[in-house]
From TrEMBL:
Pfam families for the chain: DHO_dh (PF01180)
Pathway(s) per entry: Pyrimidine metabolism; UMP biosynthesis via de novo pathway
Source species: Tuber magnatum (white Piedmont truffle)
GO-annotated molecular function: dihydroorotate dehydrogenase activity
GO annotations of cellular component type: cytoplasm
The organism's place on the tree of life at top rank: Eukaryota
Stretches assigned to the Dihydroorotate dehydrogenase catalytic domain: 3-312
Protein name per UniProt: Dihydroorotate oxidase
Keywords, sorted A to Z: Flavoprotein, FMN, Oxidoreductase, Pyrimidine biosynthesis
Cofactor: FMN
Single biological process term from Gene Ontology: 'de novo' pyrimidine nucleobase biosynthetic process
Gene3D superfamilies, per database record: Aldolase class I (3.20.20.70), Dihydroorotate Dehydrogenase A, chain A, domain 2 (2.30.26.10)
Length: 313
């Protein structure tokens, strides 16, 4: 199990703002990011439909809601983009890329093998297995289920990949959910190098600020969902400042659990959730995050957000 560190311990997390090669290039060029994370991809392109896969940003505090699935670009696109970004500089690689992937257990093994092959060619790469997207109809996040987690880890353990492998987890809200993760990691103590915590919080809904003129039979004003979604409800994943304290609690709990199990102490935690200023960054680091990922604040402020986070008094 390779140990992971990041210098500086600040970078982007997988999000819509890490979709294109231009997005990744800008993140790589920033002297204030210690890594670059790609948007989560599948072996084949995700069937993105802008009429139902959407996001919105809200102020006070900076919050996001999305009904996205995964990247419309396949894994091969990101592997080619990473190679191009690094080789086009004509200089040694300055920071690692975290390649975020997902799929069935069999697809994930194939994807990890492809990333591992590129790493063996001399590129500094990590692979993040995203088991936590809340927006895929009839496919609940596997990281809530011990049998499903076992299925992924069992196949990955047979691969003997050399690069660091991580899991991206959903927000857990009670102890039994954390124990599912811990039980799976205990069974494969040398496999996972890092945990990215957390993804967005599912089952979230934002209604338009202006009500429609329609009135229900009970005389109540009807508000409309701000976003569309595959199910037509507008329900999606909540991110940004509104989930910061929940994400912070997840990072703290996972770090303490790992430290209490022999063989898991070296598993790093990447904290993600509502970090948009220096105080949020420092809070994540203070509870044991090895690195901190930013998504919603990046979408709101662009790559300049890393200067804001790094330099605030």
């Amino acid at each position: 199990m390779p140990r992971v560190t990041f210098r500086p311990p600040l970078f982007n997390s997988a999000s819509p703002w890490a979709t294109t090669k231009a997005d990744l290039q800008e993140l790589y060029n920033s002297p204030l990011t210690g890594a670059v994370t790609t948007r989560t991809s599948l072996l084949a392109p995700f069937p993105h439909d802008p009429s139902i896969h959407q996001y919105a940003l809200f102020n006070s505090p900076t919050t996001s809601l999305n009904t996205y699935g995964y990247s419309p670009y396949p894994l091969s696109f990101y592997l080619d983009a990473v190679k191009s970004i690094i080789t086009d500089t004509g200089k040694p690689q300055t920071k690692p890329f975290i390649i975020s992937i997902t799929g069935t257990p069999e697809e994930v093994v194939e994807a990890v093998a492809a990333v591992d092959d590129l790493a063996k060619a001399g590129y500094s790469l990590l692979v993040e297995v995203n088991l936590s997207c809340p927006n895929i109809p009839e496919k609940p996040p596997p990281a809530y289920s011990l049998p499903e987690l076992r299925a992924y880890l069992a196949l990955l353990s047979e691969l003997n990949a050399a690069l660091p492998i991580g899991l991206k987890t959903p927000p857990y809200t009670y102890d039994a959910q954390f124990q599912v993760l811990l039980s799976a990691l205990r069974e494969y103590p040398l496999l996972v190098s890092f945990i990215t915590s957390t993804n967005t919080l599912g089952s979230s809904l934002h209604l338009s600020s202006q009500p429609s003129q329609a009135v229900s039979g009970g005389g109540r004003v009807v508000y409309q969902p701000t976003l569309s979604s595959p199910a037509g409800t507008g329900i999606g994943g909540l991110g940004g400042a509104s989930i910061h304290w929940l994400s912070l609690g997840n990072v703290s709990t996972i770090r303490r659990m790992l430290d209490q199990v022999q063989g898991l102490e070296d598993v790093a935690v990447i904290g993600v959730g509502g970090v948009g200023d220096r105080a949020g960054w420092q809070r994540m680091l203070s509870v044991g995050a090895e690195g901190v990922g930013v998504a919603t604040a990046l979408g709101r402020n662009g790559v300049g957000v890393f200067a804001k986070i790094s330099s605030e008094d």
